[in-house]
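Regression report. Comparing outputs from two consecutive submissions.

Submission 1:
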Amino acid sequence: MTYRNLEECIIDLEKHGHLLRIQEEVDPDLEMAAIHLKVYEAGGPALLFENVKGSKFRAVSNLFGTIERSKFIFRHTWNTAQNVIALRNDPIKALKNPFKYIGTGLAARRALPLRKLGGLSAAFQEIQISDLPLIKHWKEDGGAFVTLPQVYSEDPDKPGIMNSNLGMYRVQLNGNEYELNKEVGIHYQIHRGIGVHQDKANKQGLPLKVSCFIGGPPAHTLSAVMPLPEGMSELTFAGLLSGRHFRYSYVDGYCISSDADFVITGEIYPGETKPEGPFGDHLGYYSLTHPFPVMRVHKVYARQNAIFPFTVVGRPPQEDTSFGELIHELTGGAIKQEIPGVKEVHAVDAAGVHPLLLAIGSERYTPYQQLKQPAEILTMANRILGTGQLSLAKFLFITAEEDQNIDIHDIAGFLTYILKRINLRRDIHFYTNTTIDTLDYSGTGINSGSKVVFAAVGEPKRELCREVPDILQELQGFKEARMVIPGIVALQGTKFTNYTEAETELKGLSDAILAKGELSTCPMIILCDDSDFMCATLNNFLWATFTRSNPSHDIYGVNSYNENKHWACDNIIIDARVKPHQAPPLLLDPTVAKNIERLFAKGASLNGI
């Protein structure tokens, strides 16, 4: 079946045991988010909140909470969508195997957006922002947010739906300096399509018309986060994955999705911003308050019996992890076409996605040489770090597949493969004073930081320690040395104060290690606040290390030196301690956690989860 709207999906999920209804009244101020987090962590079902305090509208969350449920939702259109994307990436496939793709052209034709004449559908009524479920997710959030929006804009130079952008940019509904029912905040980051549209509108001295769709068939939501092949619009993909045309009309010059549950229309004027945030974000920290575009609200619409979908982001894994897995399965081959020679790129979810990339490339430049060193994979590294949202990464570990298969999703195995082979005096390459993710506060300012590439190929150069080497025991000022994975040891240090003192501390650590002798079996040392936490799980290591460090400022080395502007060392030291300028981590309010226990008690809606 294909879903004409969100409610049909909810009915289908409930029929097959994938959804529970919560009949008790629940407060959208922190309670709904806390319930979602608890159920997601338990691997539980989607949740339909039927009694949202302060709103007549229902809300649904955890729709995409597991990859299995997500695939169930798209079970009738998944293969077709994969085939169409594959053809856009490599059209020659249709010539090689025409019978496999015979239905793909028809499916793509059905996916084209379909304009409905006659203005606003009778299914919609006009409401206000204050009528919506105003869901606040984390205690220090600046207000209520829409976390699954589909924000629509058109190219001012070439208006029309085929030159539009549909993106998922969070929308702040209230709080801060926003005038309720008249203004909302639109948070979009660099490398986002709406920014190109706003820039063009600004140059024309005109406001940018924006429509924020909420709900509708789940395919519309997923389309807003898809990195699609050049020439394929998000709305075409929405029709493809939902199995029916994206239907729309224009009202007062604004595009209205006929199948959305809610639509907020408005205009972004040149130069108009207001403080947006804080917001508990997907790196596991708050993104802080910054000026972002403010949208003057024109009108707000709701379908009859509309349902408000939401998710909660925080330290991964969360529901958006499933988005990442879905995207990878649908578009996994795209990177091979975009960057020849690259076999796979893995943005590591546990590290917050953008902070850490793993990549497998090819070394074909000098097949006649016996002694191999990174060459072609360095050009691929540059391409990766210059491609779309991959360019926001901070750490890139890259190797080439040679005589053995490498599993890029075995993160510990992949890192140890590189650490066995890397030449620490040759194969570390920095990019300084450049862009990083807007949400990453480890850098020197918003959007600003650095990157580093660790590249390695060839035969192993060292065995890796599996126990803490004696050299790392009893170092003055550093304690609790713990194994993380082979070749990586965590050391607990004093609290970070500033970079001047850190330079002195780390030089002392480097000198102390060097004085004790060679440490070739441990190429990487992590300086942290809590080494027991760091080594407790692989995810703890990935999260704390790569979200709390800025390569140019926080990578040090034993016996480090510069030669012809190239930095080298004998052992890498990453200072992953919390820094004063970094954003605070997300913590669940204990009072709220206690309050929601009533819903999991015997006889309550969520008993048994």
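Submission 2:
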Amino acid sequence: MIGMFLAALDNTIVATSIRTIADDLHGLTMQAWATTAYLITATITTPLYGKLSDLYGRKPLFLVAITIFVAGSAACAFADSMVQLAAFRAIQGLGAGGLFSLALTIIGDIVAPRERARYQGYFVAVFAISSVLGPVVGGFFAGQAEILGVTGWRWVFLINVPLGILALFVVTRVLNIPHTRREHRIDWPGALALAVGLVPLLLVAEQGRLWGWTSPASLLCFAVGALGLAAFLLAEHRMGDDALLPLRFFSNGVFGWGTVAGFVTGMGMFGAIALLPLYLQIVQGSSPTQAGLETLPLMLGIMSMSIFSGRRISRTGRYKRWPVVGVSLMIVGLVLLSQFLGVDTPYWQTAVFMCLVGLGLGGIMQPVTLAVQNAMPPRDMGVATASATFFRQMGGTLGTAIFLAMLFGSLPARIAENFRTDAATLQATAADPAVAANPANAPIVDALHGGPPPALDDSSFLTTADPRLARPILEAFAGSMSAVLLTAAALLVIGLVAVLLMRELPLRTVSGVEARREPVGTAEPGALPTVAPEVAVPVAAAGGADTGDGAERGARLR
């Protein structure tokens, strides 16, 4: 839980303070690269950690991941430029890729699937708590000029150092998982092809809105990414069971449909988490810290449903109903948000709908991971868990990029339409000398007089502009967000179909470590642990008497 808290907290704490960091390092136009560099390395290394931990053991790989993450955090704290920060964030990502997947894999090793849901609920709760604390702590550090003689924003990264040292100490002392070394080949061709395929695709997902989706740079990224993924599939086919992501996994229906469900819900989850704070800050006028606190209902929904569903799964052994309920709640919550999100929407209404989306997320996040772990052979626990995490991260990355591109792509037309509709009222307001004298109103007044539309790269002018002039822009933001949320709800219907088609298998009653020790055969994926039956041993002694040798052989065989 400490290891997962490190990575989850870093995601949200940096997002809140990146604007202040970029201003201080004189690199506002390059701030996206600090996020992109981290995202690329964290996504690519996720399946690598899973495969290597299956081969060399969980503990050494978990320690390596924590150490790299802490070293990268310390380096980020002393960055003197945005180029340095992006490079050090890439190092951070190399460690972060193992923190999420290995934490869930370790629980799979030491806890049986029947009990695992209860523990994974706590991990999801850690993720939710860090999502709430991150914006608050990030806003606090970014707002301080200095703390103990160090610039305030640098503590955003320095806070990871004591937490990381604590995690290293705890893992070193108490985490002892037996590991049996396997004969293997390391899939370096697959790892290289995956990097070649994903790096350009992640780059264009993050930067495509700025470059233009049909620009030469974007088209080149699409082409290289497609070639890299084709090479990756070829490499995995040739490596067989030693592949980074064995293709035989996809012949397992639970893994296949679970992957689709994780990818689609990842798009919906990260899209909602990215859009709701924007709505609260831009349309409702909240500060970053306030917006972090106002998303608390979303996180409370995730926490409560994760813990509740985990306990019910442990008690009943049935898990399929929870992803079905979860995706359904997400669809209903996003539809309600899309219909009622507006400039004058009271916060309590938004909070109720956010809680509904959170309840849905809490119902699907850990049961899908549990289903995949339970369906795959215990020896593949690491790579199966990492693969599920990998596809969810990829869905989140693409979802955030697509939804933000939709949001900002539709804004200019909506703003122009609102200006035309309210032209008379806006012209009368702009003619007021007091309004014209306010510099914050200048972008809107210029647009009304035939100038270019207001630049939306910096929306801070909306907080001090005349409310009558700002309203058409705020209504355009709310309208665009409603359309995006409705699209996310429609996309989640695919996720609902996937979880309905996912077969429910009996949950194993032994942990991953115990299952790997099974002395008899190999159980079918998801089957209950096998027990060796008693076997009758024919005895050749004269008179049919059972000799000591025959009895001993029978006992050994039993």
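Expected: both submissions complete independently.
Actual: both completed, but the second showed a warning that disappeared on reload.
Relevant detail on submission 2: Residues 197 and 227 are 7 Å apart (CA to CA).
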